[in-house]
User: Fold this.
Amino acid sequence: MNFSEKKLNQRSKIYKKISPTFDKKHGIIVSKKINTKDTKPLIKSIENFLHDSLTKYYKKKFIKKNFIQKHINEILGLPNVTPGGQLRGTRETMKTYNNVHKNFDTLLKKIDLYNNLERLAWFSVRIKKGIDSKEYKKHTYATSKKHSDMWAGERNHAKIVLMLIGDTKKNTVSFYKPLKFTKKTFNFGKKSFDEGLQTIKQTQYLGKANKNEICLFDQYCLHQTYLAKGAKTRISIDMRVDIKGSRLNDNRPSVKEDERMVLYSAKRWSKLNYKNIKYHNKSFRELSKLYK
Ligand SMILES: [Fe+2]
Assistant:
């Protein structure tokens, strides 16, 4: 067994104890299809949060039917949308944002995953437009390259992605297994996605994230934004996690570095109130000059 195979085996072991209802054939990514009736409350809560953001920021009424498609430009014009498409919670929308968390918590318990999670970060709701404007492309250029989030400084084991709303066939994330890499590839030193990729000789395509299918992928699993021609907007949820029972990459020393890198014990995460997280407790006004 060569170095790369040995490492991939080691990483796959992190997910060994996760419920057999998850598809584990690729080792470094495990996934599970979820009943639409189980994702429905989460989808509803995200729509409510979006609708709440529109109403509060633009100070007018929006008819709920098809409002995401109809008002996509207004949604993307919200001051709490980051260049990467993350929808930050705001002081004005605290209630509906906390409600997304509550529904996500319920779902993780329902699909038999929560008990395998040791630490969790706060989730992100992400909106990605299908056809990018030039300006937008410039910002998201990085995620259109194959990468590991470790290269961006993350120390958590893995990440969860769940595609929920919109054109998730043409607008999603694709996953790859690195087949030949070096010791430097997955060390903790920050590096650009180009630098990281240069240390990998070969990758194998593993598949894409599908709607209503939870994907839990390891930091050794490369991924990139997938955008097909004619793609429309999609909305997904993602979150950084550590898995129970593995001592690999203990991230505790890094916890205090940056609020956005914090991981909470599962117990604390379950009761998280976003009012206590500065990143999600700014007003629209405070955010309005940040990304424009
Ligand atoms: Fe990423």
